[in-house]
Amino acid sequence: MILIVGGAGYIGSHVNKMLNLHGFETVVFDNLSYGHRDFVKWGVFEEGDLGEMADIRRVFQKYPITAVMQFAAFTYVGESVEDPQKYYLNNLRNTLNLLEVMLEENVKYFVFSSTCATYGDPVEIPITEDHPQNPINPYGKGKYMVEQVLEDYSKAYNLRYASLRYFNAAGADPDVEIGELHQPETHLIPLILDVALGNREDIKIFGTDYSTADGTCIRDYIHVLDLADAHIKALERLQNGGKSDVFNLGNGQGFSVREVIDTVEKVTGKKIKASEVGRRPGDPPVLVGSALKARKLLGWQPKYDDLSLIIDTAWRWQQKL
Q1: Structural domain boundaries of the chain?
Q2: pTM for the full model?
Q3: What is the pLDDT of residue 284?
């Protein structure tokens, strides 16, 4: 069985669905602080907290777990700056708790939900896996620290891991069974779709004077099911004897904030009101990743590489909410 920690959240729930469609048995472990119980429609659910060693041990002793996927993390960059302890305790310490029990139970396969935030401000575009890692906020630093731990554990304990560095996760399950539902919502595409639905007056464009074609920031959007597919391919590679490794997950192309707004208007048929405000601190002009390594070593091929396709799935989900 595959243990999906944080499997009631956005990305974890989509991975859980895809694992079950591929014939895997899954256990979802989540404390529901941000996850949604009704997103766990596949496998079995165990409520528990990574901060409680007894909760973790209970699940490992109850089920024949052979591999672990770790999605349980706080992900608000601004909050991580304001309250770093919250992030280091949950994202770093609690992952160490999970790894401790894995070692006790001799479970050797680990797929880690990492982030392009470990790179910090890019010095070259597209970003490859050997780009310098210099995270600039506690969220990125905590993920980077876990990656360092995994490297050491792999050498010392023969733990086999894949660390997957996401760019901007987007979109929703095309069957509209699950999707993106954050409180608060900070991601650009659902915020624009809220304007289309009339739930929000306008979308704020933070900075229009960047050194890009239209002056707005450019980001690499990757569909959540393409992320899920990469997780399964990474797990299968480990199970088939592949060595521990790190992979970027992105489309390899970027879209500006204005391009995303324009595409939402085309997909929804709604006019989006935008207001221009000043830059946010820490926003680099361009963040685009190279996923050539994942394509080559994992045989991964994003299916939703068109922005309008990504937005269409998100729009159908958001209309259902």
Answers
A1: 2-170+222-249, 188-219+252-320
A2: 0.96
A3: 86
